[in-house]
Structures are given as C-alpha cells and as structure tokens.
Amino acid sequence: MTSPRKPEAFIHGKALRPESLMSSYGYDPRLSEGSLKIPIFQTSTFVFKSAEEGKSFFELAYGLREPRDNERLGLIYSRLNNPDLEILEDRLTLWDDAESAAVFESGMAAISTALFALLSPGDVILHSEPLYGGTDYFLKHVLTRFGIQPVGFPAGASTAEIEARLAASGQADRLRMIYVETPANPTNTLVDIAACAQIARAHSSEARRVVVAVDNTFLGPLWQHPLKHGADLVLYSATKYIGGHSDVIAGVCLGPSTLMTEVRAMRTFLGTMCGPWTGWLLLRSLETLKLRMTSQMKNARYVADFLADHPKVHRVHYLGHLGEDDPQHAVYKRQCIAPGGMVSFDVRGGEAEAFRFLNALQLFRLAVSLGGTESLAEHPASMTHSDIPPGERARMGIGENMVRLSIGVEHPEDLIADLTQALAVA
Ligand SMILES: *Cc1c(COP(=O)(O)O)cnc(C)c1O
Asked: What pTM was estimated for this model as a whole?
C-alpha cells in the first residue's frame, strides 16, 4: 500500500524524497502558460472538450464503469475535483507513502466525513482518550444519535486493558473502527498503533474488516507514519503543522484507494472539500514543511531541556525525555522518528502560578492551536480541555498547573529568555 508515484518522482529509478518534490510534483507548467507556480483555479466548473468527454468523465465520477489503465477522473465541478486540490493531494501522499489523499476545509471536516463514510448504525468505535475536543464531542454527542457507540480506553493502556474495555462494553462483535490520537494532547502519552492494528485484525472477519484510523496531527507527516505500523487511515488537522502559519483552517485524510473512494464519495455529498485558495495556501506551505518541522523539533528540545532543569517546574511532558525504563520508551522507539515540537509542563503550584506565568510571556503568544511558525502557550485545564469533568481531567494527568507550549521557529535562546523571565514571575 504505497503511493503510486508519478515518473517525475524518480531519477535513474531512485525514488526522490518528499521534500525534493514539494515544488514540482504533479504539476506540468505547460498546461498553465508556463507559470512556474501553480495558478489558483478559482472556478466552480470546467469546460468539456466534447459531449463524449463529458459523458466519459461522469461515467467514472459516478462509478458506472471501472477506470481504464492510468485513467484519472477528468475535471467536472469543484465539489468533485479541482487542480489545486488534486496536486496538493498527490504531494500529500508522498510524506505518508499513502495510495490516496483527500483534502478538506478543516480537520473536523476530514474526521467527521471519514467517520460518516465508514461507520453505520450499530457499529462500535473504540477510541483512545483524551481526544481532541471536537472529535470527542462528535463521537459522544453526534455519532451516538446515529446509533454508533463510542468505547474509550486511556492513552498508554496495554493491549490487555484495551481488550478488557472492549469486552466490558458487551459489544465487541460490533467493533468497526479503532480511532487513535497519538501522542495524546496535552500529555504526550503515546498509543501503540501496531498493537491497535493487531486488536483490529483479531476482531476482523471477511465480511467485517475493522479499520484503524490515526489522527497524526501532532507528529506528522514528518515524525510519525501510522500506515507503516498497520493503520488504515491517517487524519490531519492541516491547520497545524501542514499549514504551519496559523492562517488557514484545513484537513486531510489519507489511506488505501479502497477506503479513500468511500471517504471521497462522502466528501462529495457533504461538500466538505476545501476550496482552491485553501489548497493553494497548503501547496505553498508544503514547500517548507520539512524546514519548519525540523526547526520546531530542534527548538523544542532546547526548551524541554531548559524546563526540566528549572526549579519552578515540577514535571515536563516531552517525548524526547522518555527514560529507557519507561514502558512508553519502546513504543516511541518503534513508532516515532523524532519527538516533535509540543512540550507540556507542570509549574510548581496551581492555576494561579500557571496564569502568572502565561500573563508574563512576551515572545510566546497566549493562544490555542499549534504547529505554526510562532510559539504559542495555553492552559489546557481552563482552555482546550475545560469541558472534561475535573475528576476525569485529573485522571488523564491534566492538572491546573499544566501549561502546553507549541514551539515555533524563533531563535531558541530568545524563547528561553522569555520562559526565564515569565517563570521568575510565576
Ligand atoms: C486542531 C485539531 C483537530 C481539528 O482540526 P480543525 O482544523 O481545527 O478542524 C483535530 N485533531 C487534532 C489533534 C487537532 O489538534
């Protein structure tokens, strides 16, 4: 299940790396007056060369016949396809080595469309906890209205614990999907994707294949590739690292063509695709994805090391600090390529100390979201995770004294200078 790469992705038969292809792959300037950069195809509809061509495009779009060798869906209407989206989707498949990709107007649009496409009334969706707030709400308050039952397990749980949760629901035979967010937000607790894939296979039958979907927003597409570990679908909020400039809301779903055909069909009916302008912004972002994520990852290590040694910091939650004796270490080694750019920490004290710290920051901005070029800080207990009941929040390890940082591309010493002066106030 690898990306069906076009010929320009090779030199003398050797596959080029994704970062080498982000300015050229899938785009032929001769089709656009020689324009070096991809134009914004700001159009709702496309002109057919002939009635026969229009008929042929529709046959394929509506699945009335199988595509001929290498035949791709022709351009019809921008809810179905658009050149900015198609080129973006081709480029996105390269990072995760996926067969197929679909882009959406938000991460939540990608997630909700994929789940609506693949789940039916009576199905069970087994999911890690905590989940992104919007996803959590969608599973517990929207899917339940359609007879789909969520069953949660804590991030970091063993295979036996996950199986026990599923068995306790009394509906293990109705399992249809395992939905995972790893590392979990904001604790950075890892979920073992390969273990989830094994559970899924154990509960699959010929007629009923259990799908593993992974929200890879926090580490992907540079530092974790869920498809390599047995996942079937990868989801992204492209608002975060993929967009990377905190100026666009978008989402992505990737996977094998069989599943993506269903996801794409549901996208057509819900109309959750992104527009050409969003597609163009993301194409521009992809050119610097590796540069940005590498710089953010390196900066995060400086910040995490600094925080770990600070007397006002009780504990740092950072993947690069997992000890060899920590059971999570083996999962990290197997599953992750680098620790990424998200660092959470507990200040000594409670909400008052955390707030004094946040209010004193000068270079870090006080805002939710993450993955942009600028560093951000937020307070999970009162902001992103405030709708989780306090008892449950404490069980997840999200205290009143926790601060979450998204590290940007600034000079690391300037970030540390800001943290130093704000911690002095805390
Ligand atoms: C932000 C986020 C989402 C939702 O994405 P939007 O683009 O805001 O719709 C989903 N999952 C994770 C992990 C996120 O951080």
From this structure: 0.96
CA neighbours within 13 Å on the CB side: how many for 138?
A: 19
Q: Where are the domains of the chain?
A: 78-283, 289-425
Structure confidence by residue, pLDDT tens digits, 206-235:
989 999 999 999 998 999 999 999 999 999
Asked whether 248 and 239 are in contact (CB, 8 A), the reply is yes
Residues framing ligand 1 (Cβ under 6 A): 106-108, 132, 134-135, 181, 185, 215, 217, 237, 239-240, 249, 251
Give per-residue pLDDT as tens, 376-406: 999 999 999 998 889 989 988 999 999 999 9
> pLDDT tens digits for 34-57?
999 999 999 999 999 999 999 999
Query: Which residues have a catalytic role annotated?
Result: 79, 132, 215, 240
Q: What is the CATH number of domain 289-425?
A: 3.90.1150.10
> CATH number of the domain at 78-283, please?
3.40.640.10
Mutate to test the pocket of ligand 1, among 103, 105, 108, 369 (most ligand atoms within 8 A of CB): 108
Rounded Cα–Cα distance for residues 100 and 89 (Å): 7
> Which residue among 216, 219, 237 has the greatest number of ligand 1 atoms within 8 angstroms of its CB, and so is best to mutate?
237
Q: Which atom of ligand 1 is nearest to the CA of 181?
A: 13
CA-nearest of 129, 135, 119 to 156 is 129
